[in-house]
Fold this sequence. Notes:
The structure holds two protein chains of two kinds. Chain A is an alpha/beta fold. Helices cover 27% and strands 32% of the residues of chain A. Chain A has helices at 36-51, 66-77, 95-109, 129-137, 190-196, 244-257; strands at residues 2-7, 9-11, 17-18, 25-26, 32-34, 56-63, 81-86, 114-118, 141-151, 154-160, 164-171, 174-178, 201-204, 222-229, 237-240, 261-263. In chain A, the strands form three sheets. Chain A has a nine-stranded mixed β-sheet with strand order 11-10-9-12-8-1-6-7-13, sandwiched between helices. A two-stranded antiparallel sheet of chain A has the order 2-5. A two-stranded antiparallel ribbon of chain A has the order 3-4. In chain A, strand 9 (141-151) and strand 10 form a beta hairpin. In chain A, helix 2 (66-77) packs across helix 5 (190-196). In chain A, 44% of the residues are buried. By secondary structure, chain B is α/β, with parallel strands linked by helices. Chain B has two domains: 3-170, HUPs (Rossmann fold); 194-313, 3-Layer(aba) Sandwich (Rossmann fold), CATH 3.40.50.1220. In chain B, the strands form three sheets. A seven-stranded parallel β-sheet of chain B has the order 5-9-4-1-2-3-10, sandwiched between helices. Chain B is elongated. The chains are: A alpha/beta, B alpha/beta. Strand 15 of chain A pairs parallel with strand 16 (294-297) of chain B, so a sheet runs across the interface.
Amino acid sequence: MKIVVLVKYSLDVAEIRVDPATRALRMSGVPQRFGDLDKGAVEAAVRLKETTADVLVEVLCFGPPEARGAAKDLLAMGADSATVVEDPYGGSAEAAIAVRVIEAALRKSAPFDLVLCGFASDDGYSYQTGPRLAERLGLPFVSYASQINLDRGALVADRDLEDGIQTVSAPLPVVVSVAEEAFVPRSVTLLQAMKAQKKPTSVLSLADLGLSTEALEGVGGYRLLAETGTVVSRRQRLLKGGDVTELADQFIDALVDEEVLVLNGGA
Amino acid sequence: MARILVWSERPELARELLGEARRLADQSEGEVGLCVSGEMTPSELDSYAAYGAHVLYLTNKAFLDPAEWVGILGLVIAHAEAGLVLIGATKTGMEVAARVAERCEASYAAWAVEIGLDAESGHTTAACMLYAGAGLATYAFSRPLTVLSVAQGTFEARDQAGRAARVESLELGEAIAQLTVIGERPKSAGGPRLEEAKAIVDIGRGVKRLEDLEMIRQLADLLGGQLSCSRPVSSDRDWLPEWLGLSGAKVKPELCVTLGVSGAIQHVVGIRESRVIAAVNNDEEAAIFAQADVGVVADLDEFLPILIERLQARGAGPAWS
């Protein structure tokens, strides 16, 4: 059976800075990497490979050419091959467009039994790829999976929802998004990393998939009018050092200054 | 005339979305529809009217499967000729919103925090959280239908007595469920809703021991607040049922005291609307200090017992009680 894992070469959002004067987002120099959610999806696939006979795990990424080299880390985790579809939009494509590209790559890679992805990307965080793909492929969709098992041609999974855990089954092929931190990515040994160097990676262009930016032009649903950083206007008073009792008193005084505490007695 | 449809499986979130939908609709004598399901008492239906719905689209079944909701909303959108759909950004809501957008070929953006609707053209614009909340993007939507997902606590529910709504019952065809539900087990029940707390004591990964929760609860009592936490503390350690952040609850208390919270943006989004943020962390470089009004660089084990002692000794209490 074949499992395709969708991964995004994401921006490290913790490194995004905001220009305090213009409120512009400073995007240059923000590093990119495969996010924890994406690695979690790879981990889920590799675990299935370890417990099920004849499983092939393919990693698929719509992203920059650098993702090809970085995908070696995912191959070291146990995936068998990696494909990068080169992104001509520089990471700014709407989800509706990205999903069409991924759909085309999946159809090229068919037949597959399972498509796995993180429930959201680490940077966009808009929860769209899995559900949109399931709609486009006409496949069942199991979201927020925290446990995944294969049982005689069907998938059985736990869905991690706000109020409870729901166990569901769905026929294959199926699209599955994995829950946060449900599948902690394994650490990789040096030997695994060396073996991964020999595993196949490939790069495809939109044209290889029969697509073009012109043909995808009408797919998007919005125009970006403005983009601003969230500016924090907090007082940022920092108390440190010295005697802990004094520190506690200064803290209490600060909260009284902020009018969230009142003192009714004592010193 | 704007036709706006609202759906959330969480009644309190649906009421907030109705508040914003009604505000937008009133600018152009538009109409607000609400999709509800299952057994509804007349007084529940009346309350949705008071919160702003002109029409209640009532389906005869309580749903479990997101695919069924996608099907229902697709039908109601066509029937109501909706131009804008607001969906509550719960886990189920986020899945349903993206699927409905794909199925109905709608414009879609997640995490809307401000919505504009041009009364004449019907064109929708929205400011939406970007990069997990680090930024804000404003979009102009181009398709006949726009779908937006909206987190709880973004808009205000406004009820007004004397409003009435007409009810349209929908008969559903054959089942369109894609998943077979084998079992369900509830998570441990939460306390009172965090969204209503005046003060929050927010526990991060820097709090190491479950035993410390007792002391932290004592601090929360002194501040007149409730306990909450970041996602790893809830989902990995299962200390508390509900977490704050982009994927959890978003709160706007008078005071939020964070303990051992690093300040990752995905979590800060859940607390940054607090009036006052105070942070305790032993790492002076922690990102949380840039997000706080008052910060203390201290070891929690040393600082907390003494803080509690001093709060008691000085007779400190919340300013609002």
